[in-house]
Design a protein that fits this description.
Elements: H1 2-21, E1 38-40, E2 45-46, E3 49-50, E4 54-57, E5 65-67, E6 72-79, E7 86-91, E8 97-106, H2 108-121, E9 126-128, E10 136-137, E11 142-146, E12 156-162, E13 168-169, E14 185-193, E15 199-200, E16 207-208, E17 211-213, E18 219-221, E19 224-237, E20 251-256, E21 259-265, E22 268-269, H3 277-280, H4 283-289, E23 294-295, E24 308-311, E25 317-319, E26 324-332, E27 338-347, E28 363-365, E29 371-374, E30 378-382, E31 391-393, E32 395-398, E33 401-404, E34 415-420, H5 426-429, E35 432-437, E36 443-445, E37 449-451, E38 454-460, E39 464-470, E40 476-480, E41 486-487, E42 493-499, E43 505-512, E44 515-516, E45 519-522, E46 527-531, E47 541-550, E48 555-563
Parallel strand pairs: 18-27, 19-27, 41-48
Antiparallel strand pairs: 1-4, 2-3, 4-12, 5-11, 6-7, 6-9, 6-10, 7-8, 8-11, 8-12, 12-13, 13-22, 14-16, 14-19, 15-19, 17-18, 19-23, 19-25, 20-21, 20-26, 21-24, 26-27, 28-31, 29-30, 30-34, 32-33, 33-39, 34-38, 35-36, 35-39, 37-38, 40-42, 42-46, 43-44, 43-47, 45-46, 47-48
């Protein structure tokens, strides 16, 4: 049994070592012909996910040539209002796939392929999966132009490399070099008590440590007095050459008295585990103060994150009375630049002066089972493993507001919520929807269905306050730069502004002379844009018709005539 165990350990170690050193270093070229400067690194901490690639700055402009990093074929094309926006996926002969996101537009041959299918489906948003041989590309070929589409916060290129199992791999392993001579910055550090019998500086709550920067750039914490099982967390970031962006760490380690007990490494992960970031960070602190503290321990029952490489006793360590300990936290970037934090700890069993209180409620939720609440109005159901740990759930329904605990507790899986609306007439229900209410009172539409006298949503992952809201206002459509019967012979585009102040825009349709036309929707600017080069119009006099619907199906139709000769 012992030999079998040693063999498994050896094979696992060899597999990890091989996987880290066997990535081809000269197979892929840079996707942009400019010096690479990053605004985002692989594994960086984002809202509800780890960043899945590199965000490459495009010198604050759009339209730079985007190159295929290697020979291959376009295996997927996505045109979406959100997410990666306009995106290309190229599969290569070596089994890897490169991804290029937030594009402004595709190359002419890819554009023609996409446009034909958009007209066939009469849809701007589209997902396509070309077969091998349909859209072959060569290494260095221009495949697209950089942009700011989707959920991008500014012009840049999102670049990924995935393996045959669709795991995302740090592109740095493939020889993509980004100048970086700066060591990470550790801003804050916290000590956490694992249970009621643990303490740090006589507190059972998380304690912020006092840090002093040393001459060499490392940090030293004031001596900590503790007892029992405790863990450490840090708030840290990294900066690369040529940019001021606060990027993520590559390697985070913690040792106690010279023995490594924790390591997190941003090397490879799957999309299915990305939401575990909410267990990796101190989510309560993030929700209250927007600080992402990376925990060098695992305190949740359900956390299957593969980015943990070393995890002895789940990263917690035991402090005994009257003994001295030295904790060392190492923060590294991919180039090996390192910042060390040293925390001296003296074991002292003392009276706990600050006790973490647990607010008990009638609802105790267990992570490994379905948890639900039902009263005369509200029904809510959480699937198994929707939460990372067991806890008391705070629920109430008052003055039309369903309080589902609060947003300091993360939710891992979608849950369902429904309101009984049998007291409302049908002609009122058709305008109603479920909305999430933030702390400022702003309402956000959530996908709502009406069935059996109930309004239901099953697509939410956030706790907080939910209410019923009504939207009887129709969307607005406003022409930009043209008017009735105007000549548009000198215009390349036709634009309208669309907006909805209630439930939000659900769909739109554009027609010219009774035929569907491709109109690009830019939701950030609220613009619908028709490019006259998309197709040839017959005749001189034309009728434009645009229909916009909101999420409760209020509809507005805009018509206008214009003149244009081809």
């Amino acid at each position: 049994m012992q030999k079998k165990y040693l063999l498994i350990v050896f094979l696992n170690f060899f597999g990890i070592l091989y996987s880290q050193t066997n990535y081809p270093k000269d197979y892929f070229i840079n996707p942009l012909k400019i010096p690479l400067v990053l605004s985002g690194t692989f594994g960086e901490l984002r809202s509800n996910h780890f960043h899945a690639g590199l965000d490459i700055k495009t010198q604050q402009v759009e339209g730079l040539n985007v190159l295929s990093s290697a020979d291959g074929y376009v295996s997927r094309i996505s045109v979406s209002l959100w997410g990666y926006g306009n995106a290309l996926y190229i599969t290569h002969p070596n089994g890897y796939t490169t991804v290029y996101g937030h594009l402004k537009k595709f190359s002419p041959k890819i554009t023609a392929y996409v446009k034909k299918r958009q007209y066939q489906k009469e849809s701007f948003e589209i997902r396509l999966y070309p077969k091998s041989g349909e859209l072959n590309v060569s290494k260095g070929e221009i495949i697209a132009f950089s942009g700011n589409s989707g959920s991008s916060g500014g012009p840049h290129l999102h670049f990924e490399i995935r393996d045959v199992k669709a795991n995302i791999i740090n592109p740095m392993f493939f020889g993509i070099k980004i100048p970086d001579h700066k060591s990470p910055t550790i801003q804050k550090s916290f000590a956490y008590s694992k249970n009621d019998s643990s303490q740090v500086n006589r507190s059972n709550k998380p304690v912020e440590l006092i840090l002093k920067r040393q001459k060499n750039g490392d940090l030293l914490a004031n001596k900590v007095y503790a007892y029992g099982q405790i863990g450490i967390g840090i708030d840290a970031y990294d900066r690369l050459d040529g940019a001021i962006n606060k990027n993520g760490l590559y390697d985070l380690k913690m040792s106690v008295n010279g023995k490594e007990i924790f390591q997190f490494k941003a090397d490879k992960f799957s999309f299915s585990e990305s939401r575990y970031i909410n267990s990796y960070i101190d989510y309560e602190r993030f929700s209250r103060m927007k600080q992402r503290v990376q925990k060098c321990f695992v305190d949740h029952q359900a956390n299957n994150l593969s980015l943990y490489k070393t995890l002895l006793d789940k990263g917690f360590f035991t402090i005994k009375d009257s003994l001295d300990y030295q904790v060392t936290v190492s923060a590294k970037d991919f180039q090996g630049n390192e910042t060390l934090l040293t925390i001296p700890i003296r074991g002292r069993k003392d009276t706990i002066a600050i006790v973490k209180k647990i607010e008990k409620t009638p609802y105790y939720f267990k992570t490994g089972q379905i948890n639900s609440i039902k009263d005369s109005i509200i029904q809510v159901s959480f699937p198994k493993n929707a939460f990372y740990e067991d806890f008391y759930f705070d629920y109430s329904y008052k003055n039309g507001v369903a309080k589902l605990h609060n947003n300091t507790v993360p939710v891992h899986k979608k849950f369902s919520l429904s309101f009984d609306v049998s007291k409302y007439p049908e002609n009122e229900i058709k305008y109603m929807y479920i909305a999430r209410k933030n702390k400022y009172g702003k309402l956000y539409y959530v996908a709502t269905k009406h069935k059996d006298h109930r309004l239901t949503t099953s697509s939410i992952k956030d706790l907080g306050e939910y209410i019923l809201n009504s939207d009887k206002d129709k969307p607005k459509i406003t022409p930009i730069g043209f008017k009735e019967n105007q000549s548009l012979n000198k215009s390349s585009y036709l634009q309208v502004k669309i907006s909805d102040k209630g439930s939000g825009i659900k769909s739109y349709r554009g027609e010219i002379d009774g035929k569907w036309v491709l109109m690009e929707y830019k939701p950030k600017k609220g613009r619908l844009i028709y490019n006259f080069n998309n197709n040839q119009l017959s005749g001189t006099n034309h009728t434009l018709k645009i229909i916009v619907k909101d999420n409760v199906n209020n509809s507005t139709t805009f018509t206008s005539t214009f003149n244009r000769k081809n």
